[in-house]
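Researcher: Let's continue the batch. This sequence belongs to Short-chain dehydrogenase/reductase, and it's 270 residues. Same format as the previous ones, please.
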Amino acid sequence: MTKTIFITGGSTGIGKATAKLFAANGWTVIATMRRPEVEKELNQLPNVTLMPLDVTDREQIKETTQKALALGDIDVVFNNAGYALMGALEAISDEQLVRQMETNFLGVVRVTQAFIPYFREKKSGLFITTGSLAGLVGFPVSSMYDASKWALEGWSESLSFELNEFGIGIKTIEPGLVATEIGTGSVIASHPAYEPLLTKFLAATTPDKTVSTAEQIAEVVYEAATDGKNILRYVCGEDAKTMYAQRLAVGDEAFRAGIKQLLAGANLEF
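Model: Same format as before. Here are the C-alpha cells for Short-chain dehydrogenase/reductase:
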C-alpha cells in the first residue's frame, strides 16, 4: 500500500530534496510552500501534489490540512519550513524576533496540532521535524534562531510522551551546516558594536568539505520515516556529529570555552 508524506517548506533545500526522494521511492507526496505556482520541478512529478501553505497563517494551516486529508490517508508529516535569523539581539527588531518564532517554532507546533486528531483516531502516524545542531549547541550572534530550535527540542521530547500513548511517533532531524538556500535566505540583523563578533563567527563557520548536502539530509529523513525505531533525535552530518559528541564529552562550560577559542582564531581542541 502506497504511503503518503506531507511536507512543509517544500520549495527549496531539504524540503525539495525530501519530496524528490520519497517520490522516487514510490510514496505519494504532498509538498506545501508559500508560492506553489512558481514551482517548476516538483510539479512535473506524477505522485507529487503541491499545495499553498504559509506556516505563519493559522487559517491556512487549518484549510490546507483539511484539503490534504481529503485526498486520502497521510502517514508522515515532515515539518521543515524555517529560516535563520542571524545577528546580535540588540540589532533585532520585535517584528523580526516574532516572525522567527512564528515560523520556526509555532509554525511547527500549529501544523502538528492540526494533524494530531487524525493520527490519534487511526492510532498511527509520525511527525518529523527539521531541527538543527543549533538546537543542541548555542552559537554566537544567532540567539533567536537557536532559541527557535532549542524550543523544538523540549517541545518534541515532552510531546513524545503524549503521542506515544496513541501510537504516534515524533522525531527530530539534527543537521549541522547544509549547503542549501537557507544560507542565502537568512536574515542578518547588523549592529556596528557587534560587527567584529559577527565577522569572526561567519569566518569560523565558512562551509567546507564537512558540509552536508540537502540530499544527504533527505536520506536521514527517509531513514527516520521507515526504520520503525522509537528514536527522538537523529544527529546528522559529520560536523554536527563531531561537535555534539564534543559537547557531551567535555561538558557545557568547557565547550563554551572552546567556542571562544574558535572565535579568537585558535585551534578548537577539547
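Researcher: Any comment?
Model: The domain at 4-189+211-237 is CATH 3.40.50.720 (Rossmann fold).
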